[in-house]
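Work Package 3 (structural annotation) set out to generate three-dimensional models for the target panel prioritized at the project kickoff. During this period the team completed the workflow that converts sequence records into discrete structure tokens, so that structures can be stored uniformly alongside our sequence database. As a representative example, we reproduce one entry of 303 residues exactly as it appears in the project archive.
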Amino acid sequence: MTIKTAGTPLLDTLPGDAEISFEFFPPKTDKMEQTLWSAIETLAPLAPRFVSVTYGAGGSTRERTHATVERIVRETTIPAAAHLTCVEASREEIDEVARAYWAAGVRHIVALRGDTPTGGPYVPHKDGYENAVALVKGLKDIAPFEISVAAYPEGHPDSADKAADLDNLKRKIDAGADRAITQFFFEPDLFLRFRDDAAAAGIKADILPGIMPVMSLAGVTRMAKLGGASVPEWLPALFEGLDDHPDARQLVAATVMAEQCRRLYAGGVRQFHFYTLNRAELAYAVCHMLGKRPVGAAQEAAL
């Protein structure tokens, strides 16, 4: 008996027209540095639009962030973006860091208000930038940086409501930011509604969805709570019983990311920002499913 199936193929081949970018964090040890550079070397052939390097609360990773970004600029052709926050630093200190980045060849800053190291309520430094809006303006006064800012599909925890949060995002864009990168989320509809609401609010800049791999359910749940993101009921159920099966857990994580990106692509999204956690495998696999191929290999195939 022949069984006929309806609809599209299980996995459509995508044309590779999506733009991608990756986030890393600065390594603390020599071993972690080796892992980071292995990830960068693996992902670089996919020709990311840029890669960004995070910055610890209160500038706790300032030197390591600077060293990592500077090395990317020096040793690769990938545009590198450095995160910079307002937390526990004066304007003079932040401006000094920004000037050092410009002198090192860094042309892209991810400008963030940041959170306090203790996790308590945010209090601006008495001589510092009040918030991300002020930071964007200050950076533009220093040099013509390309600037990315944060966006929150479910609203920032400190915002009164989603309308106030959107208004704050618009102020950051109006201050000179070039694009926004979202907090991670797991339901594609959350991002698609947020994108449409942002457009209705007059925000014309690109908004990149932040895609987070579930390498640790406990870790993702903790980060979601801190950042005001939701964890859908189906997510813990998918990872239940996989603590002692890391390879199976990674396969499930890749499936979750791939399905999320597939649905976003179907909704018209063509730019994706991956929080790699300094690991290449999951991001590489999902980019492959988005149709991305190593630049050299794609050129050879066309010959």
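Confidence is low (pLDDT under 50) at residues 298-303.
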